Amino acid sequence: MSATPLLELRGIDKSFGPVQVLRDVAFAAYPGEVTALVGDNGAGKSTLVKCISGIYSTDAGQFIFDGQPVSIHSPRDAASLGIEVVYQDLALCDNLDIVQNMFLGREKRRGIVLDEPTMEQMAAETLAGLSVRTVKSLRQHVSSLSGGQRQTVAIAKAVLWNSRLVILDEPTAALGVAQTAQVLELVRRLADNGLAVVLISHNMNDVFAVSDRIAALYLGQMVAQVKTTDITHAQVVELITAGRSGELGLVTEPATNGNGAAPAGSTTGGVS
């Protein structure tokens, strides 16, 4: 495991009007590792990802990428750093084939015409580099693909552009057992190829199957980020539902002793 994160967030705040969705969030994603981002609905996972990808601007905090402070104000800024997001809806066009989908909006041209041979070769090399063998033809329409194959194409599209950090939003949510195994194998392969991977998932079996670290959000706060081997399934569930599990997570706010002071021995809130 790398000791230095590729992406590090410090003190991230994000509000929508009077509602504070993210509060002093710290997060790190490491090259060659899968970091699972977990949390209940409304915990702030999607908002955090949209801040990383440049869709939302942050109210406060710092982004460190590859050891250098950076500013991300738009998806173009994120893409220029090598940050790609595969959203749950995949954003694929059923009426186009695999190559056309992988290069949609970034087509290669030779003069005024599309450079189809180059695009087909690049698509084939990307899929081969990910050891994808379930696609029969690069010219298949996406409408003819299974759910697992569609997810594979969406992931390959994300890594085609010299990506360094890939964020996957619930990649196995609508898949069967065999297709889930196929996609999880691909997720692991991304990390083994040196990419930093962030996996958003509600499925704890998937999380423990492929992740190296687990980061738990609770009501907009990052309550823990630990190595997967150092935490149990039950502890993760407690962090997601209550923000605390044993010594991990939020520290209980102290009661006052009547004059505004905390009683002796009490502690204030924080993240373990």
From TrEMBL:
Keywords: ATP-binding, Nucleotide-binding. Residues 251-272 are annotated as: Disordered. It comes from the Bacteria. This is ABC transporter ATP-binding protein. Residues 7-244 form the ABC transporter domain. Pfam families: ABC_tran. Residues 254-266 have a biased composition (Low complexity). PANTHER family: CARBOHYDRATE TRANSPORT ATP-BINDING PROTEIN MG119-RELATED (PTHR43790), SUGAR ABC TRANSPORTER ATP-BINDING PROTEIN (PTHR43790:SF8). SMART domains: AAA (SM00382). InterPro entries: AAA+_ATPase (IPR003593), ABC_carbohydrate_import_ATPase (IPR050107), ABC_transporter-like_ATP-bd (IPR003439), P-loop_NTPase (IPR027417). One of its GO terms (molecular function) is ATP binding.
